[in-house]
Structure formats: structure tokens, C-alpha cells
Amino acid sequence: MNPPVPELQLPAPSLRTGHAAPLPRIAPGALVRTTLLSLPAEPRPAVTFRAALAELVALEGRLAALAPALGDALYASRAGHTEDFHRDVVLPLRRAVHNGRDPRPALLRRLNGLPDRVPELRAWLAARGRREELLTVLRSGAAPALAAGRSVLAALCREPAFLRAASFTSTDLLRAVVRAGQDGPVDRRARKEEAGVLRHVTRAVARTTPLSTFTAVSWGVLPRPSGGEGAGSGAWSDAELEAAGAGSGAGPGAAGSRGVMEPGTAGAWSAVELPLGSALPTVRANRTLVDTLFAALAADPRRRSTLPHRLCSSPRVSDGRVSFARSRTAFTAARFLAVEDDEVTLGAAEPLLRLAELCDPPATPAALAQMLVPAGEAQPEALDAASAFVRQVCDAGLLVPVEPFGPQDPEPLPPLARWLRESGAKQDHELALRIDELSTFTDEFGTAEPGRRAALLATLRDRWATLLDEVGHTVGAAPGRLTVLSEDVVMRRPVPLDGFLDGADHRAVAELGFLAEVFDLGPVIRRQVRDSFVERYGPGGVCPHVWDFGAAADEAWQRAARAVDAADGDTAGADGDDGSTAADGVRRLAALRAELVAAVHRAHADSGGGPDDDVVLPDGLVAALRSRMPSWAMRRPVSYTGFLQRTPGGMLCVNHVYGGWGRFISRFLDSLDPGAVRETAVAVSDALGPGARAAQVRPVSGFNANLHPLFVRDEIGADRSYASLGMDDVELVHDPVGDEVRVRVKATGEWAEVLYAGVFAPLLLQPRLAPLLMDHPHGITDFGPLVPRHRSSVPGGDLVRTPRLRHRHLVLRRRRWELAGGTVAVLLGELAAEGEVPVGTVARWRALLGVPDQLYLHAPPPRRGERVDEDLLRALDRPKPQYVDLGDALHLRCLGKWLARHPGGVVLEEALPAPARGEQHAAVELVVETYRAGQAHRARRRGER
User: What are phi and psi of 550, to 5 degrees?
Assistant: First the structure.
């Protein structure tokens, strides 16, 4: 192992870079996510099997390490024996050693005194003999280890929490889980299902994704770093963190020992007491289905006539023509709606402009027609003409019906049924009864026992499919796979978070925010949006209709991704005018990023670092980023969400870094303690600063996880009946002082800080919302460029290894091994050839690749396409990460089936930390938000007209 390189520093900041920014702070409120299943202590037969397999892996590595020296020694031994012996014995032995094959037994019997003359051969034969002994032990111990593993699997399959989770997936999975949990003889079908059942069990003990009762979610307040009572508010200063023991880099792993922290079997947070007794399921009907059903019902003119209508967008009038942005659903996915916009331009007729004024607030078509009739005109003829005109506008999609439920209504089915019941038609009354049944079954699902849950799920799928088919929206050939509801398990009572994070943690996580900004796409998006806007509207220009810039802003996001790739490592233009255009801004940020990457790679190489040596970012290098960031990138406040797990040795693993501003806590706020909403609001307000006007934008787009409450003063929405600000109440402005595009409230001239706290990818939402969603676009980060890629040849292709990446005691990226599709095919062939528990193959490949026993299998990253949104859609179909234990006999039996899901290649990632055994919880994750205040124009809260 090699020590870190403390002298690695970036050059001093130039005069043109920004001023040093205050350290971001961690918000007091934090989310806790935990698995509900816990792993028991490993049975003795399994412990024995694991130890023998670990020794075999070490021996395989030793045999491979001895091979080059042994080959040379055999060549040099020629003078000590006859040519015939050399030709018939030594050369075949040397070829076998070189090619990694076992020599024929007959050949080994003819060695005579060669081992006495060649010490390397003597050591190799001893290691090989011990390997054969271990293979015998492992093959005889495989049956007891398998039995022990199956006993643990059966016990987990009998756990009520897992049965409930399995019932959420499918009836077939529940049946398989019930069979796996039974004692007594096991039939062939159960053995065939074993790999699938174990895959779901490992997901339940290793992943903290909030899906059904695999996991539970809670919330708590972090103490201040000094350890005082309460969390307080406001930014924590460097001095406070220094006093808490963080400034010197003290803390676990801060000394920078490289590569010495290995995955363990228990996490520091796994023993925490959580209020599981207060955990309750939150079940909601799939909004994709609800919105699709409403659209199909409202397509009928009779039903539509009973609903209030609003204009599809604000009208843009120019040169005697009026334009609107009209929406349509491009396609319906399992859990979201893909909505597109098209622009419609008509003659600016007076009735159309008058209608635009009258439908705010929304009104029924009949009421609108009545209001269109001028006072004093003959009523019957004029009303008929006005009604015909309103119908035409409705048929053209320019007037759209308002749903009978709110945009963020968590229970939309009852008001949908009520609307149908009030229409008076018999057919609609029958439909209302069926929708009421869907609502009742959905509500019952959360508290039902597993068997009943599976039956309810099957009933809901069948009835949803039938209902949608009858109203003209056919589900397709697989209604059994229909996603009909979502479920989260939430612990309402707050969790005490004392001891979760100390001062060193606060310091390191806060500094991580600056590193994230360097490798974030968000600043580049802002530059691209700025250039597109100025090109279209001019410096200081105003766009009075947000939708008018929607397509251009959406395309700016696409260009930003391409610009980062093109500018990577290009320092041209670094002496420009502080990033006043997108091209120069991208070059400046890319130059800083390239400089940082080159310095880290150079230091790693100079110190002899290999794929097993951690890449450690020196404290000073990361701290220097505070004054190295371009000033234009620091003007606005920034928030990030960090997903953290504690390792047994005290390190903090950063699982993800996404955008903040309440984005990942938002979906649970309705179910958590009321203090969660208050703390979120305070944290956001503190970051934005005094006098800032924050406004949320809360699109759902059929995605249940985007349902969340308002936690700031204002909301921007399409309907002022629900939002304090309509889309027509705000405008886009190029602020010449800050040289960026801002959202301004028309009535007051205030700048609005527009926050999107939804989980759904902003780029997949309606394009007209893009200018609002990109007001704070941070959260697309990738630290991958900081780690060098070590390439070597293995059977079937190339192996790419990347080391662990650390800042202080934060693990920013785990060790990874990328295997090509050809390598996976070779490995699958060898696994199948060995038998049920392929100990020899697994030991050989573990030694060859240099992997630990506990890993995650990931699908390889897809090749980047022309458009980022298309890449996101393709990513939705990739297999989920799979935990695998290469020291467990049952996992070895299932390994071939799991690898077969990745024919195009696989990425192996170290399981750090591994699921804990014998603790309260197998995995616990802390979700924290960091906030950095804006550094310029903080006092300017009003735009200049």
C-alpha cells in the first residue's frame, strides 16, 4: 500500500476566479432509510465453507503469482537434466504453468528429483497440493453449507415483512416465497425458483430503496456538530466545525491510509433503535392510470361539458396572430406519462382573445359561452354561435378540462367517482361504482395480510385493465404486469439521530458540495440556457410566456451534456471574461475539472498507486475549490442531497449525490412528523436568504413519487385555483447584472427562486416547464473521471478496474471491475461445467479479477446516445443492482442465473458496507441535504423592468 501524497495541490487561484465561499452546511432534518429484514448470524457450516473458500482464493492467487518465476526457473534448470527429460517433462510442465492449466497426473509422477533442484517448483507443488485438499473440503462441505443457507432463506421467507413485500410484486413471487419458506422435502419446482426468490431476499436485506415493505423511511433532526442540544438553524461556520474536531481532518480514515479499509459485516448504524412500531404503509393508486382514465372519460363531449375548462396556455399575440402551447400525451409508461407540447398559431380573433380572459378562473363551456354573448344581443342566436365557437376551441385542444381532483391530490379516485355520479347518466353511475371499488381495494391493500394483498393486486390489475379497455384505452397484452399502486412504509415518529454524524462528518460532507459543483452538469445548463435566451430575446430581454422558451430550454439541456463532453480537458479560452457566454463558461469549468483530474491521476501514478490503492483527494485540494470556482457559477445558492452509509471502520460511503431543495424527502412529508415540513421550510429559507421569494413547481406527470406538499410560500402552476402564481403570472428575464436567466413575478418585479422538489427526472417532464425546472438544475454529478482506469486482459476480453475514491473519510466511489460480454460468456461456461456449487471456478475467478467476496452486480452503463432524455428512458429498462455473496454456497449455486441477466457485460462493485449480520437492521442509510448560499447579488431581490 502506498501513502497519500500530501504535497498534491492545485495552483493558487487566479485573479479572475471567484472569492472563497462559505462552507455549505448540512440541513438539520435528515431522512433515515432502513431495511426491515435483518440477517441472522452466519451458521457454523457456512462459516467453515467461507473460510475454506477464502483460503482457496488466496492459494489461487499465490499459484498465479508463482507462475512467472517458476517458468523462468524451469527454463534455467535445463543444465541439470537430459534433453529427453527436458523435452518430455519440463517443457509440457512449463507450458501448463504458463497457460494456467493443471498438468496431467502422469506428468507429475515423472518429476523425479526436479522439485529438489527447483525451489519454485517445490513451493508451487505444495500450494497446488493444499488447493486440492481445500477443493475436497469444499466439495464435501458444500451440502451442509447449502442446507444452512437454505435454512436462513426459509426463515427470511417466513418473515411477515418479506411476505408483504413479495405480495406487492406478484402472486407468482408470493407463491414461490411461501414454497421456499416451508420445511420438509423440496420439489424440483422450488429448486428452479430458488435463484429468483434469493434475488428478492438479497434485495430486501441489502438495498434501502423505499419500495413496499422491503424498507421503511423515517426522519429526525441532526444535532449541531459541536454536540449541543438541538439542531439550530443558519450556516455553521468553519470555526464551529474546527472546534468540533473536523478542521484538522481528524476522524476515521482522515490520515489517508490507502486501501486498508475493507468491507465488513456490520455497520455502525445497523444497531440503532428505530420506531418500527409507528411504521404505517402509505398506499396510493397509480396516478398514471388515474390520469389516463380521466383523459379517456373527458374525451366524451357530454362528460366534458360538465367540467370547468381553462386555456391550454397563455396566448402569445404577435402581428395579428395568436399562438398557444398545446399538450398531448406521447405515450403512457408503467408509472409515468410522457407529455409533449406543440405550438398552434391562429388569427388573433377578438372572441378568442376574449375567451382567454374569461376562463381564468376556469369555467364550464356553457358558462363561457354565456359570458361571450355581448349584453343586449338576441340571446338564442348569439348563445348558439358562442356555444359553437367554444366547442370548436375545445375540439382543437385549446380549452382543456380541469380534473375533478387536485393536481397533488393523494386520493384522486373518490372525487373522480363523485364527478361521474353528479353527471346524472346511468352509465356514469355504474362507472362511479366501479371506481369506488378500485379505491376501496387500494385502501385495503396496505393493511391486508400477504395472501389477501396478492389477491387484491390481481383483482386491481384485472379491473383497471377492463375499465380502461371499455373507455377506449387498451392496456395491451400484459395486464398482469400493470402497476396499479405504490406503497411506502413510513415511521411517523421522529428518529433520534444523536451519534449519526460528528464534526468530521459535517466538515467532509460540506466540502463534498464544492467537489460536486465542479463535476455537475447544472452550471453548464445555466450557461447554455443563458446563451439561448440572449440569442432569442437579446441582452436584458424578457419572455412574457414561459412556455415560449420551453423547447429552447429543453434543447439547452441536451447541448449542455454534449458541451461537457466536448470541452473536457480543453482549456482554450480560460483567459476570457469570466464566463459570460456558454462556450467560455464551459471551457472555464472544464479547465478546472481537467486540472483537478490530471493532478489526482498524476499523484496516484507517481506514488505507484494501482487498482487496489485508494485514490485519496488531499484535504487542501478540495478546500481550494472554494476559491477556484468561476464567480458566475457561485452567484446562485445550491443544494445537494447525499445518501450515506457508515462502514464498520467508521468511513462514510456516499451512495448518491443528487439535487437538493427537499427533493428526496418531499414524497414522505405528508406521512412524517409535522416537524419535517417545518425543518425543510426553514432550511430552504435560510439558504435562499432574507427577502427571497421561493416558489415550488409541482408537476406529477402520472408519477406517484412526485406527490408532495408545499413547503414554501408560493407555487407556480397551470391553474390559479390551486397555485398562488399562474404560469402567466411569471416571466423569464435576462438579468444583465448577474448575466443569467431569472424568473420574475410580473406583478411585483421580484425574482422568484423556483424549486422543483419532485423525484422524477426533470428532463422527462413536459417541455414547457423546462425554463422553471432549470432555475436550479444542479444534481447530475459524476466523480468517475477522478479515478484512473486500469485495463488488463482476461479470458473473453478486457478487464477494466477502477480504484476506490475518497475525500477524507468519505468514500465517493467504490472499487469496480468492468467485465465485457465475452468474459461473462466464458465465466458462465465454466460455472455450468463445474456443477451445482462451482467452488473451483469461483475461487479461480475471484483471484484472477481480485474481487472481494461480497459484491453488487450492475448492468454496464449504456452507450450515450444523441439525446439525454432517450438515454434516461433506456436506463429504466436496465436490471437493478444485485447483491451477491461469493463466499456463500447458495449464492454460488445461483450465480450463473444472475450473471445470465447481463449478456452484454457486467460491472462488479464492492459491497461497502456489506449487509450486517446479527444486528437490528441489515442496512441503514442516512439522507442529508447540504445548502450553500449564493455569493453575489444577494441583496438584489427585485428585477429591473
Answer: -60, -50
